[in-house]
Design goal:
The chain has four helices and seven strands. It has about 140 residues and is α/β, with parallel strands linked by helices.
Length: about 140
Amino acid sequence: MLSVRCPLCLERVEVPLDPGARARCARCERPILLDRPLKVAQEDFDATVLGAPVPVLVDFFAEWCGPCKWVAPLVDEIARDYAGRVLVAKVDTDQAPAVAERYAIRSVPTLILFEGGEERARSVGLEPEKLHDMVRRAADGDG
């Protein structure tokens, strides 16, 4: 199970990692979908990302960033392709400055792969091959 916050009502929800499961928020009944990137707020970062039972790819981005918009379709594709094996999260560095500072995010997009609460790999900018390789290795247990 994975602990996430419902994007509609902000209730904390435990959801199964099975990509075929139809998880819903107990409060507002909105579907909780893990086959797309999950926006994570600063206050939820530790519980959602560091506490996840699977590897987590975090896309540190900013709304104003052009290259972040270029990498977004790739991040969406990874979320779909690895649903249930790798969680994909997005953190807006303007909304989560303490998290950005903790992980020394100096430019966006920066994508960090976490496993067991630890940073395992990092990609800065648009590096599709590197990104696919680090996620594939984590999903296959070759971290």
